[in-house]
Amino acid sequence: MKLKKVLTADQSPTLYVSELDEHYHSVNGAVRESVHIFINAGLKQVEKDTVNILEIGFGTGLNAILSYTENLKLKKLIYYEALEKYPLSHKIIDSLQENSVFSSEISKQIQQTIWEKPVKISDNFTLRKKQIDLLDYHPDKTFDLIYFDAFSPDKQPELWTEKIFKKLYAATNKNGIFVTYSAKGTVKQALRNAGYTVKRLPGPAGKRHIIKADK
Fold first, then answer.
1. pTM value?
2. φ, ψ for residue 14 (rounded to 5)?
3. How far is CA 124 from CA 22, 68, 72, 109, in A?
4. Could you confirm whether domain 29-214 is CATH 3.40.50.150?
5. pLDDT per position in the chain (215 positions), as tens?
6. How far is 88 from 139, CA to CA, in rounded Å?
7. What are the residue boundaries of the structural domains of the chain, listed by start?
8. How far is CA 4 from CA 19, 109, 148, in A?
């Protein structure tokens, strides 16, 4: 994919994909969006001390970095599994690290660590990145929290289906949480059909609503 770095409203960078006419994160603030959706509506709502997280769409690694940073306060034991069909090149990763969000040693480690094998980033944060299409993914674990951060339903409709959500529901632990930025009606219905209880929550800057779904 042809990618271009873009500085968003909160001065954090994201990437623009010309083939899809889509940004990896909100231009209204990449960090602000991710914190609002995945940290505040997701990680902070998990009441367990040991948490398995599944991320659909590792992308720049921003959600993993923010989860690690938040966990310095939460002090949970986290296993973080992230799926990405198209890992970023070293050149793109290096360009992101010019920004403070990605410039810490931990951020660099999260972005650059090897794929496919679990890597202990710290005593309480283990990361496993998998290069795979969600359509081909068969979970070998169950999860307490799912970050669904694929490209939008208009751009990748095959990933936002009842069939996909049923697969994820089966891999979600009881009282587990699913969060995503899309609040499209068809997405809400597909999640309900898969078995989740769906709530529409206020969105971050530039977005009216997001979805939090519970098992």
1. 0.96
2. -140, -175
3. 34, 9, 9, 15
4. yes
5. 789 999 999 999 999 999 999 999 999 999 999 999 999 999 999 999 999 999 999 999 999 999 999 999 999 999 999 999 999 999 999 898 887 789 899 999 999 999 999 999 999 999 999 999 999 999 999 999 999 999 999 999 999 999 999 999 999 999 999 999 999 999 999 999 999 999 999 999 888 999 999 99
6. 23
7. 29-214
8. 11, 22, 23
